[in-house]
Structures are given as structure tokens and as C-alpha cells.
Amino acid sequence: MSENPSTLLPAMPNNNPTTSKYEESGVSQTGAETALDHLLKHILPTRQFNTQFPVKADIGYFANVIDLGNGTGVALCTDGVGTKMRVAELMHQYDTIGIDCVAMNVNDLICIGARPVSMVDYIACSHLDSQVFDQLGQGLAEGARQASISISGGEISQIREIINGIDLIGAALGHIQLDRINTGQNITEGNLVLGMASSGVHSNGLTLARRILLGATEDEQKENVHKYEESLGRTLGAELLEPTRIYVSAVLEMFDAGIDLRALVHITGGGLLNLLRVQRKGIRFVIDPLPDVPPVFSLIQQRGEISTAEMYEVFNMGVGFCVVVEHANDADAVQKICKRHGISCHGIGYVEPTGNGGNEVVIPSKKLKSENGHFTPE
User: Which of 7, 18, 89, 320 reaches 20 to 30 Å from 99, CA-CA?
Assistant: First the structure.
């Protein structure tokens, strides 16, 4: 998802000393979880409305699959760019934000083992600036090129009464053989976790990152977005607008090479906690060693005085996608493919049993462990 949680609420005064920086910035996790619960009690029973084409995976994974019969299925997912669009607006630069929209969708599709095929976009807006839409189209087309998909349709909705600016959302479709559905169900003790490098913040946590690096007010953000940051080697706005990396071509080569991929995990909102979404239970992901953290995350943490636990809960921290494999030979094959595609990839951990029915993520070097969907200090 483009933000975690996906519900964006107005920032409220911090009267609770335990409130996270993310909640202070305007993203309410408690509110999102409650809203989701109320939504799902109505949505989940709809699976029974069309038993001819059943849903094959539990809700909550990166994408889902509809059984079309004869052993084939169609994978579906949807996501948007979230408040990264606000950075584009501040920069008056919209030619890359479409790449993010494609990336957030196709990277989710490959997690379930599907080959991305096509996407549709939905643009909600309060204005129709031809130059802005020309640039949006450029980015969408470039993202489609990188992912080798078509954009088969879309919708522009003028809703000035509801939205001020532009929101960009996509929904993607993929093809899959039903016996190739991958939700991490075959993960076992001793499997290895590899981390594929992100290109930056991607499209998650921008509400918090923007508030810390650019300022809390609109005037501050307009001024600071063009400030050159020595540690980044470019302006703050350019860093935050860096497009989300698309992992499709590398992962599809892994599919074609027949590598035993036990799980594929898109590291979006929630950071490495996304590993908990796999459907094999009773396992612990031990993340050790950690890859080097890109400078932008160190800058966000320092300036925002954010705890290490919250940083690893909100941001990808340099790991945009994870692959779980059985043994070292598979890891070597994955790394060689990533190198051919210009993606840095390193072993970042392993799998062990928990001794209970739940899943866990631990980061020993940071003394962090997952608990109730959050990272907490050990």
C-alpha cells in the first residue's frame, strides 16, 4: 500500500506521549485498523456470491487470484501513489509519478507468482491542466515499459468538491497457473532471505518524510523542496520524488530459470513487517546482517528524532523487495539475475521456527522484534 496504514486522517494534537511520529504527521494506524475491520465484515462474505470463479487466497496478501478454470487464474491488485503526489505538486514535476503507480501494483502482482499483463489507472482531480496530464501519461507509459505491460484503460474523475489536487491510483491484472500460486506456504526452517535494494523511499511513508524534511506548513514545504542537501547530493524534493523501483523483469527471469522461490515479499508500508504477510505459520524471520541504510533514511531519522523501531516499521530502509529461497545455490542464482538487471541484492537473513503458531520478524543488530504488528525494542 502507498501508506501504512492506508487511511489518512487530519493531524491531531499529540496528547498521548506514546503516539508515533507517523500518527503525529496525520496517518492513524489505529483508525485504519478499525476502519478495515468494519469494511471486511461486509466484504469477506462476497466470496460466496460467485462460486463458479472462486477466490484462491486469503485476503490481506499482496494480490489475489480468481480461478478461471482449467488450471489457470487471473491475479488482481490495486494501489496508488499516496501523498507522494504532494511532492510532485510541490516540484511541479509529474513525469515520474506514473512510474510509482505502475510499480506499486506490478510489484504486488509478482509476489503471488503472477506475470503482470495490464493495468488501468484512475485519476481523481480538482483541475485539468494539459501539461500535468501529459507528464502523468509519460510516467505511466515508462512504468508500463519497464514492467512489460499494457495500460488498457482508465478513468479521469473531476471531483473538486472532494479533492484538492490530484490522486493517482491503479489496478493491475496478471496471469497465473493455479499450481504456481505463491503465498509463502512452502517456507521451511533454514530458508534464506535475500533483500533487493530499493531506489529510495518509494511510495510509502511520504506523509512523515515530507513533514520532517520539508516542514509542517505548505509555505515551508514549497521553500524547502528545492533545497540542496549535501548528504544526498541533490535537492530534497528530487530525493523524495525518486521513482519506485520495478522488480518485474528480474523476478520473471527467476520464474523462467526455475528457481525455487519460497516467497516473494514487496516491502511497502510497514517495512520488513511485510514478511509477516506470508501464509506459512510458526516461523521467525531473523534479519541479520542488515544492508547499509541509504542516507535519506538516516537524514529522516536524525531530523525527526524518530525511534529505530518506528523507522523500520514505516520505511523500507533500503530493501524494496525480499525473496526467500531454499539454499545457497538458489541464493547465488537470484543474485546473478539481480546483477544482470542492475539491482543490488544481498543475503539479509534466514528462517527459523518460533515454537508457537505465530510469525515473527526479529532484527538482532537493532534489538527489534515484531509484536502485534509493530516493531518493539527487545
Answer: 7
Rg (CA), the chain: 20
Burial profile 119-148: b = 16 or more Cβ within 10 angstroms, e = fewer: bbbbbbbeeeeeebbebbbbbbebbbebbe
Q: What span, in angstroms and rounded, lies between the C-alpha atoms of 332 and 109?
A: 24
Which amino acid, residue 22?
Y
**Cell numbers at residue 340, please?**
544482470
Helix (H) or strand (E) holding 313: helix 308-314
Closest of 146, 86, 93 to residue 119, by C-alpha: 146
What are the beta bridge partners of residue 283?
353
Largest CA distance in the chain: 59
Query: For 276-323, how does the pLDDT look when each residue is reduced to its tens digit (9 = 90+)?
Result: 999 999 999 999 999 999 999 999 999 999 999 999 999 999 999 999
Identity at 150, one-letter amino acid code: S
Q: Cell numbers at residue 101, please?
A: 503507480
* CA distances, 264 to each of 86, 228, 254, 261, 275 (Å): 30, 36, 11, 7, 9
C-alpha–C-alpha distance, residues 17 and 107, integer Å = 36
The x, y and z cell numbers of residue 13, run together, are 494534537
Backbone φ, ψ for residue 72 (5° rounding): -120, 155
Please name the helix (run of DSSP H) or strand (run of DSSP E) that holds residue 377, with its range, or none.
strand 374-377
Is residue 7 classed exposed, middle or buried when 0-12, 13-18 and 19+ CB atoms within 10 A define those classes?
middle
